[in-house]
């Protein structure tokens, strides 16, 4: 008679391994894939920040942005308008080339977090309603670059490699 405890014992034969599922030929593997992903994130984020910074300088105008900042209660709105617009343009360019990525990412993340708290949270989630979804995404993408760094396809990595020699 077979008991339940007889079936609970494991088979002592060698376990077979399941071969790994091959990656799609279009998907880079390992560090190359990570580097490509970080490059794409830097490029997209850089373009978005440059566009928003240029909009502040060329479309809204710095006095217009300062007026808006003042209405939101941001201290020293004239200075803040220039600093934020400049950070967006210069920071976006630096992200694209991958120079000072962690510092720029941190500065942009803080800027977006402040915008989220001071302006967008009260409007709810959806950006179409003035909500925080878009600035949250920009803040977290910037924070991701701060934490991960630029990857090997960046000026930062080139500088680091030359220092090691």
Overview of this structure, please?
- The protein is mostly helical and 165 residues long.
- The chain has helices spanning 4-8, 30-60, 62-71, 77-97, 101-120, 133-148, 155-164.
- The longest helix is centred in the N-terminal third of the chain and has 31 residues, at 30-60.
- The radius of gyration is 24 Å and the shape is globular.
- It is a multi-pass membrane protein.
Q: Alpha-carbon distance between the termini?
A: 73 Å
Radius of gyration, taken over Cα atoms and rounded to an integer in Å: 24 Å
Low-pLDDT ranges: 9-13
Total of DSSP H or I helical runs spanning 4+ residues? 7
Q: What fraction of residues sit in β-strands? A: under 5%
Shape: globular
Binned, the helix content reads: 55-70%
Tally the beta strands: 0
Structural class by sheet pairing and helices: mainly alpha
Q: Biggest β-sheet: count, sense, barrel?
A: none
Mean pLDDT: 88
N-to-C SSE string, H for helix and E for strand = HHHHHHH
List the helices and strands and how they pair.
Elements: H1 4-8, H2 30-60, H3 62-71, H4 77-97, H5 101-120, H6 133-148, H7 155-164
Helix pairs in contact: 2-3, 2-4, 2-6, 3-4, 4-5, 5-6
Provide a brief overview of the structure:
It is found in: Cell membrane. The chain has 165 residues and is an all-alpha fold.
Describe this protein with a few key phrases:
mainly alpha; 7 helices; 165 residues; single chain
């Amino acid at each position: 008679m077979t008991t339940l405890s007889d079936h609970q014992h494991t088979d002592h034969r060698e376990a077979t391994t399941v071969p790994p599922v091959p990656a799609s030929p279009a998907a880079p593997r390992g560090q190359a894939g990570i580097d490509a992903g970080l490059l794409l994130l830097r490029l997209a984020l850089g373009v978005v920040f440059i566009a928003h910074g240029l909009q502040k300088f060329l479309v809204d105008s710095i006095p217009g942005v300062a007026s808006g900042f003042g209405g939101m209660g941001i201290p020293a709105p004239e200075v803040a308008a220039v600093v934020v617009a400049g950070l967006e343009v210069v920071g976006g360019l630096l992200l694209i080339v991958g120079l000072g990525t962690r510092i720029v990412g941190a500065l942009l993340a803080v800027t977006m977090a402040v915008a989220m708290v001071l302006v967008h949270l009260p409007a709810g989630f959806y950006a179409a309603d003035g909500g925080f979804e878009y600035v949250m995404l920009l803040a977290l993408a910037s924070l991701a670059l701060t934490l991960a760094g630029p990857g090997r396809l960046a000026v930062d990595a080139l500088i680091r490699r030359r220092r090691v020699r």
